[in-house]
């Protein structure tokens, strides 16, 4: 077993996806974990799955991790600070500044509180969806503030590193502005676009390809949770949306008079600007490195994907990313395999020789 940085015990309040995953990851390193949840059912499931044990009256945790919904996080953090006067308390809510302000206003001991936010998740929630490796290689923000010392806050760094996360230091203000752009506004745009599909003819929906699926995937998220998140980060989100609205208005004006001088150039520049922005999204392991894609046609039969992965491995090529597209009732699917550029030609030759059909 790899030596851990934390000594434990670690108390986790709220055993949904994130709480259960933190517990599973720490238990895999031999760290004592105690669990608490408002739902006895969720608590029992998390204990049964090995994420930790139930809370006892004599527990003395060194670290408390609050994993509750955003609208009650400040209440729970304040209660934990009062209950365990020797513990450092953190939370994993997706908004940081409002929670800090609420704690200060109510006179909580913020010299022992530091907010954090793991940029990780899954489509499913609840303790049964927990995974010990959920945070491996994922950014995890620590939102430091002036009231807590580095020595005290360092225990949260240890938590992140023990779980395999990538430590990112930001102020609460920087964090909230950043997630407004890269997380909260994409949720709004995805939901608004998906809402346009509500009354769309079935004939139109049958034409949907991977582009629409990519754009609307997060529209399936929990509305109640997102009302809480957006309400807590309303100003930064609104600021980005207003700028986005101006971009859309420029695009619409060009389309409304497509024959006007410069209209097509305006559209081209907007699209090219999208290319530039997309190219800045970090690649695998947070490194700005571009990959090339190879699209392989896969028969809709059991075992075909496994065979493809085996053939790619035997070709000595690492899959950097993978996307699958499969239209309803189609007899084949498309596997888009991303690799480093220097491997594409060799992989194409190897797969073709093994009988795979390369699209395009």
From TrEMBL:
Instruction: Please state every residue range assigned to the domain named ACT.
Output: 293-360
What EC number(s) would the UniProt record show?
1.3.1.12
Q: Transmembrane segments in this chain: where?
A: none
What highest taxon heads this organism's lineage? Answer: Bacteria
Top enzyme category: oxidoreductase
Which residue range or ranges hold the Prephenate/arogenate dehydrogenase domain?
Answer: 8-289
Please indicate if the UniProt record lists Acyltransferase as a keyword: no
Against InterPro entries, the record matches this protein to: 6-PGluconate_DH-like_C_sf (IPR008927), ACT-like_dom_sf (IPR045865), ACT_dom (IPR002912), NAD(P)-bd_dom_sf (IPR036291), PDH_C (IPR046825), PDH_N (IPR046826), Preph/Arog_dehydrog (IPR050812), Prephen_DH (IPR003099)
One GO term (biological process)? tyrosine biosynthetic process
What is its pathway?
A: Amino-acid biosynthesis; L-tyrosine biosynthesis; (4-hydroxyphenyl)pyruvate from prephenate (NAD(+) route): step 1/1
Q: Which Pfam families match?
A: PDH_C (PF20463), PDH_N (PF02153)
Assigned keywords, A-Z: Amino-acid biosynthesis, Aromatic amino acid biosynthesis, NAD, Oxidoreductase, Tyrosine biosynthesis
Q: What GO molecular-function term can you cite, just one?
A: prephenate dehydrogenase (NADP+) activity
Catalysed transformations (reactions): prephenate + NAD(+) = 3-(4-hydroxyphenyl)pyruvate + CO2 + NADH
Belongs to which family? Belongs to the prephenate/arogenate dehydrogenase family.
Know the name of this protein? Prephenate dehydrogenase
């Amino acid at each position: 077993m790899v030596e851990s940085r934390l000594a434990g015990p670690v108390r986790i309040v709220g055993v949904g996806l994130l709480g259960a995953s933190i517990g599973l990851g720490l238990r895999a390193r031999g760290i004592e974990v105690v669990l608490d949840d408002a739902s006895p059912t969720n608590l029992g499931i998390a204990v049964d799955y090995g994420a930790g044990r139930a809370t006892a009256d004599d527990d003395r945790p060194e670290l408390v991790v609050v994993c509750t919904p955003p609208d009650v996080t400040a209440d729970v953090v304040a209660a934990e600070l009062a209950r365990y006067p020797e513990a450092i308390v953190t939370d994993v809510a997706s908004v940081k500044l409002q929670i800090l302000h609420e704690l200060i206003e109510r006179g909580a001991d913020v010299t022992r509180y530091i907010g954090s936010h793991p940029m990780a998740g899954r489509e499913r929630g609840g303790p049964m969806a927990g995974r010990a490796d959920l945070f491996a290689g994922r950014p995890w923000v620590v939102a430091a503030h002036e009231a807590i010392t580095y020595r005290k806050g360092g225990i949260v760094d240890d938590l992140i590193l023990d779980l395999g996360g990538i430590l990112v230091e930001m102020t609460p203000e920087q964090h909230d502005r950043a997630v407004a752009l890269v997380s909260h506004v994409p949720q709004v745009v995805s939901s608004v676009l998906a809402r346009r599909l509500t009354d769309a003819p079935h004939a139109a929906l049958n034409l949907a390809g991977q582009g629409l699926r990519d754009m609307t995937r997060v529209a399936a998220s929990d509305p109640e949770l997102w009302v809480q998140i957006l309400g807590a980060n309303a100003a930064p989100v609104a600021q980005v949306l207003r700028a986005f609205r101006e971009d859309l208005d420029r695009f619409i004006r060009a389309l409304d008079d497509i024959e006007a001088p410069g209209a097509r150039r305006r559209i081209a520049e907007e699209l090219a600007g999208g290319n530039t922005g997309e190219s800045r999204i970090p690649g695998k392991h947070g490194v700005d490195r571009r990959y090339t894609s190879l699209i392989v046609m896969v028969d809709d039969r059991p075992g075909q994907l496994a065979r493809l992965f085996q053939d790619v491995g035997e070709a000595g090529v690492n899959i950097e990313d993978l996307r699958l597209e499969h239209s309803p009732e189609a007899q084949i699917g498309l596997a888009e395999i991303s690799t480093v550029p220097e491997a594409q030609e060799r992989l194409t030759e190897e797969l073709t020789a093994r009988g795979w059909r390369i699209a395009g």
